[in-house]
Amino acid sequence: MTVTAASTHTAPDLSPSAEDVARLITALQSAGLRVEVPMDTRTGGAGPADAGMLHVEGVAVTVPTSAAYVADSPYVLRGEDDGGWAVYRDGERLASASPAPRPRFYDLSTADGIPYSQIALLHLDSLASTVLQTCAYWGTADQCRFCGIGVSLAAGRTIAKKTPAMLAEVAVAARDLDGAVDSTLTTGSTATPDRGAMYVARCAAAVKEAAGLPVQVQFEPPSDLDVIDRVADLGIDSVGIHVESFDPAVLARVAPGKARWGIDAYFAAWERAVAAFGPGQVSTYVILGMGEDVEVTVEGCRRAIDLGVYPFVVPLRPVPGSLMEDFLPPPREAVEAVYRRIVPHMLRRGLSSAGVVAGCARCQACSGLGAFERSEGGLRDGRPALPVVG
Hints:
Largest sheet: 7 strands, mixed
Number of helices: 12
Helix content: 25-40%
Shape: globular
Structural class: alpha/beta
Order of helices and strands: HEEEEEEEEEHHEHEHEHHHEHEHHHEE
């Protein structure tokens, strides 16, 4: 009898590369994703919304799923014979995908009957809430045109004011039932000198004490920068102070109330915040697709990075019911071009989403920036490839 060696042939790895995944995520966030499966979604809200939540090749992603323009998207999420899901385009399978399950804590209510889902939502693995669902700018000439903070409230999907005790109660449930790993709390701006910073910080401190989760709070630059130090003194881990656009003309058009501060006021607030929280623990939203000058945008991001601020760059996600609901997100090519110019500078300066403790820049699901960090080799074993700027 002749004995032959076992075959060493293995099937080729057909999984998409990190570069392919980064480009696909960027495309989905520009074109949207048609869905043929049940998916947990977020509608309305204070920032980028209309969010279908899923994992693409294991990467956490939120993508537009319900806006009118999504009907024309070439991308579709559908089931497969083995019971899994995948993203397809023109019949070609591009990547595996798995919709996020409905959080179990959504089935609970407070003792006085308020559903937990009206107090906070789970964005994949991050518990998020707008603690004051009202804004001094809403309904005035100063209203941010991209914002939908009042849309959710008018629809009855949330309540106007969440208390520290409410949020602490929900955070414990989200941690225990659904594995929440951090909490991101934002607020509508108040007509007070601190712009609501101290209230959202007290809410975050209650969450951290009760659930032990790292927390980020988000607020406008306060008129007294000492407020930032007082927020840090409450044990908050990171802050988001969102400029929205580095282009002054665009900011004046889409967010006139915020534009009145001036871009330099944001840099002053960031400098104070970096001193209080450390490099990489301060972030700012930068929205693409509102007519901004690309060179001004990239230069603003680089200047922020040099200060130790993480620019969380996202494509415009028009919120149904907002003043920009009829806009379209920017094309993938335009967004990708900006990512490719920012990521190398970020990595050279030692900033990485892997070093962010809590918040949107930690989660990364609403942007393709983190995916391009991985494709550039900036993340190794979940850690920054370079030391954090000191």
